[in-house]
Specification:
Layout (H helix, E strand, L loop, with lengths): L11 H22 L1 H12 L3 H29 L1 H19 L5 H17 L3 H11 L4 H9 L1 H20 L1 H22 L7 H5 L25 H5 L2 H18 L5 H8 L3 H13 L1 H12 L4 H21 L6 H13 L4 H12 L5 H8 L1 H21 L3 H19 L10
Helix pairs in contact: 1-5, 1-6, 1-7, 1-8, 1-9, 2-3, 2-8, 3-4, 3-5, 3-19, 3-20, 4-5, 4-9, 6-7, 6-19, 7-15, 7-18, 8-9, 8-14, 12-18, 12-20, 12-21, 13-14, 14-17, 15-16, 15-18, 16-17, 16-18, 16-21, 20-21
Length: 422
Amino acid sequence: MTTRGTTPVVGRPAWLLLGGAFGAFTLSAALMHSYPVYLVAFIAEFGWSRAETSVAYSVSQLVGGASSPLVGYLVDRLGSRRLLLLGGGLLVAGLLGSAFVTALWQMIILYGIVMTIGANCLGLVVFVPMLSRYFVRRRGMAISIVQSANGIARGISAPLVQLLISLIGWRSTYLVQAGLMGVLVLPLASLLRRADMPPAQFQSGAVPNDLPADMPGAEPEPLGRGWTLGEASRTPHFWLLFAVYLFTGLGSFFVSLHQLAFAVDIGFDKLYAAEVLGMGAFLAVPGIVVTGTLSDYIGREWSAILAYGFSIIGVVFALLITSPDQHLLLWLHACFFGLTWGARGPAITAKTADLFPGRQLGTILGVITIGSGVGSALGSWGAGWIFDVSGSYRVAFIGSIVSYAAGVIAFWALRRPPARNG
């Protein structure tokens, strides 16, 4: 309840925005994370090599990074609700077209470009600037809740899509996904209607009293002057964050895209492996929320380093798997790797908001996110290429560990805040 002319005591609108962001990101991430299951189906139907089948995913990561500055620019000016509607439309179009593909280039265009831009309009670049204004003192927690959608999405998508493909085929499964997106996009957009306040109201600090923040009696953070993209790019912190995104993308996608194919190659049943990996992915939900919330208390650096460590342990367990009888090792790999999938995200994005607050945060975050796109593209395609050359994912998994270690070093160097260089 609120009283006219007084500051509200309950931050309900802020939590509705958080709910809308969480729901939208969960849906788009589930659609995009289903590609590893389709990868196995494409190999079986079209006879594409691992590297060829990975191209669409690699292009997706590159496009995701390259389009982030544009998406960040648009959200700073149009608002998150309009971006959600645009993204939802692109995802529906991409899913419908994917049901009728007959060649690799079609998949590259539909998944790698159309769906990726659509998903980017329902991603962190859109929601982090909004949530950073409304959740000032609990920024890490709020971002971690949205980021945890990655874990839910991966946990749901792998076993569910594999089951649907087994029952109705992969083409019909794409049509089901398109219908789901089409039905849910408008209700999700309605939850974000409060986010489309004219930017001038925030810039002046004149925030209406019916838009409370996350704490009783608090208001959204005024944007003030803040950092510009040019100022931020002249600091070493900007490029260290770029490197963190790059190394994290490499470390994660040297493994994640090919997890199911790796397990099937070892001899595990497809549906069983998808279920195990899906259950492991669900652990990302508490993992992301815990590490993101911890970052508010123990610091972004220690929280991220903890997540990197668990991921490295998960990759080590994968390196130890040599036969389909090693169920425990598969579970340990899925759980440790899944627990911290995306767990660095809240710490990294919150750190970006900590270092470069202001009305251009969306643009700054978008440019830095290019590093994630490059790293993820190289990792996902590189793992497939390494398999085609060596017949094994072993070298790719070792590359994952090295990349994560490099991410730790880069993140630790961000301990002190940047100074403006004029």
